[in-house]
């Protein structure tokens, strides 16, 4: 499968414009191989949009790259900005329905690479997740060697974490 959207820099620039259109002064974002998130402050409250390749596939969207799910989030925010500008939708009503973020966590990098949203409870959870992701990232399965090495390094760091 090939990349479906333009380069990430296109959507980073678009995100900046969308946030300005929505009147959002404080925001942050990140995207990686598997997922993305956009956090912003609106009227003093913190909110987060997140998306992942796994979530897209679970909803029937055939997508492979984290940068493409980032593009989808930015395009969704752009659609919302258009509705607000046209008076179709009130942003404050919509945002009120969103789940507020809990306090930021210090999730270890290895847990992020292994696509955990919180530190797993056991090494068995790590191994299960590693095997699932290895089926995607292994060079024999269409992944590449660098991605697989990153996954293996994260697994080793998790093993070290649980052996301490």
Query: N- to C-terminal separation?
Result: 41 Å
Number of helices: 7
What is the helical fraction, as a range of percent? Answer: 40-55%
Q: Outline, from the CA principal axes? A: globular
CA radius of gyration is 18 Å
Percent of residues in β-strands: 5-15%
Instruction: State the order of secondary-structure elements, H for helix, E for strand.
Output: HEEEHHHHHH
Q: What's the story with the biggest beta sheet?
A: 3 strands, antiparallel
Rounded average pLDDT? 85
Widest sheet, order of strands: 1-2-3
Derived structural class: alpha+beta
Total number of β-strand segments?
A: 3
Low-pLDDT regions: none
Question: What would the keywords be for this entry?
Answer:
164 residues; alpha+beta; three-stranded antiparallel sheet; 7 helices; 3 strands
How would you concisely characterize the structure shown here?
The chain has helices at residues 8-22, 53-58, 66-85, 91-96, 109-113, 123-137, 145-163; strands spanning 26-31, 35-42, 45-52.
Write the topology of this structure:
Elements: H1 8-22, E1 26-31, E2 35-42, E3 45-52, H2 53-58, H3 66-85, H4 91-96, H5 109-113, H6 123-137, H7 145-163
Antiparallel strand pairs: 1-2, 2-3
Helix pairs in contact: 1-3, 6-7
What this model shows, in words?
The protein is built from 7 helices and 3 strands, in the order αβββαααααα. A hairpin with a 3-residue loop joins strand 1 and strand 2. It has a 3-stranded antiparallel β-sheet. It has helices spanning 8-22, 53-58, 66-85, 91-96, 109-113, 123-137, 145-163; strands at residues 26-31, 35-42, 45-52. With 164 residues, the chain is an alpha+beta fold.
């Amino acid at each position: 499968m090939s990349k479906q959207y333009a380069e990430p820099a296109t959507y980073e620039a678009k995100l900046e414009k969308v946030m300005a259109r929505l009147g959002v002064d404080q925001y942050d974002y990140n995207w990686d191989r598997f997922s993305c998130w956009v956090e912003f402050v609106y009227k003093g409250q913190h909110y987060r949009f997140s998306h992942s390749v796994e979530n897209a596939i679970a909803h029937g969207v055939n997508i492979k790259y984290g940068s493409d799910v980032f593009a989808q989030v930015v395009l969704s925010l752009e659609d919302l900005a258009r509705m607000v500008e046209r008076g179709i939708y009130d942003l404050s009503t919509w945002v009120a329905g969103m789940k507020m973020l809990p306090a930021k966590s210090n999730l270890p990098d290895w847990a992020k690479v292994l696509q955990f949203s919180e530190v797993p409870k056991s090494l068995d959870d790590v191994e299960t997740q590693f095997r699932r992701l290895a089926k995607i990232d292994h060079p024999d399965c269409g992944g590449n060697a660098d991605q697989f090495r990153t996954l293996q390094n994260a697994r080793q760091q998790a093993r070290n974490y649980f052996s301490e």
